[in-house]
Amino acid sequence: MDSSRSLEYVLSMQGGDDDVSYAKNSYGPAAALASSKTMLTSAIDSIKLTKGGSSLIKIADLGCAVGDNTFSTVDTVIEALSRKVTVSDGKSDQPEPELEVFFSDLPSNDFNTLFRSLEDKVNSSSHKYFAAGVPGSFYGRLFPKGELHVVVTTSALQWLSQVPEKVMEKGSKTWNKGRAWIQGAEGEVVEAYAEQSDKDLVQFLKCRKEEIVEGGVLFMLMGGRPSGLVSQVSDHDSRLRHLFTILMDQAWQDLVDEGLIEEEKRDGFNIPVYLRSTEEIASAVDRSGGFRIEKMEVLKIADPMNAKQQELKDPESYGLAMANSVQAGLKPMVEAYLGPDLTCKLFKQYAIRAAANKECLKNNSFYYMIAVSAIRV
Ligand SMILES: C[S@@+](CC[C@H](N)C(=O)[O-])C[C@H]1O[C@@H](n2cnc3c(N)ncnc32)[C@H](O)[C@@H]1O
């Protein structure tokens, strides 16, 4: 996992629909989608569709994964668009524009499951649309110039294109010893992530600038942090949510203590996620050019795992639920690094650690998402 190419091929949500699948554990991103639905709908309302204009409206969902969220995002866009089309073109003799949706994600995404559910989903949508899958990284070009009218990306842009190269240099100040993520990491490590994050977001925006038609909409919902927060997770409630990374570090340490892996192997595993601040996002949009931010909102989301504390009374079941939800996002990447047996052992330890953690069991946690709607100018 030391190059962007290899990350593209191992980073994915867990496919299928078993207990550790993303489809069964995507309630966190679902809560974020629900909170930003009104903003997404008004972003679509601001698109200018002229009478007799485009007879085909193209929509792309970048980092679509698979599961209910994938289709609910697209349904929101389709509903808002078809309302708009009816209002603006209802009395004209022009035929209604046709809609085409591109579901895009890394090649490692479970496109098979997505394609199998497509027919039902399209038929139950408020407006029929044509659909296609587009495999590839959103940090590169995915579509021809001036092709798209609406681009959405939800709960995906916090994933970087790669672990920063500096963080992979053994023995350097940026070697992230004892941690899988950057919470509590040395300043140099966080700085390396911040640099990578900025480079990635600018690259993302430059690609979209080429692909989106003037007047088109870019809607981005990503894990982030409010204005002025230097640390990734500096307030108590969101630190609690990110306990998952501390539990993960403890589980890795268990493997080291049991002599199953060397420390160096543990230290070489890093999660390529960065939570951008509103200023970092605004600055990247500004420097990339081509977009005007219409609205940017910080959403404070109650972690749906809070409800599980009530629902699952015993710590073991709760620990297992926590481990399942973490595996949904990380298992493919961990498995590519550790192999199946050690991965299984790691997440067993994770479940045990989560079940034993009183803070995790008793307190409610929150996390922040940043929603941005921008117009291609
Ligand atoms: C947490 S899931 C979010 C899925 C869905 N959009 C939702 O709201 O539930 C993040 C998705 O982003 C995808 N992703 C991460 N990095 C990506 C990249 N560079 N290019 C395209 N997709 C990426 C992952 O493969 C994953 O499917």
From TrEMBL:
Q: Mind listing the UniProt keywords for this protein, alphabetically?
A: Magnesium, Metal-binding, Methyltransferase, S-adenosyl-L-methionine, Transferase
- Name its GO BP terms in alphabetical order: methylation
Q: Name one GO molecular function term.
A: S-adenosylmethionine-dependent methyltransferase activity
Write the protein's name.
Gibberellic acid methyltransferase
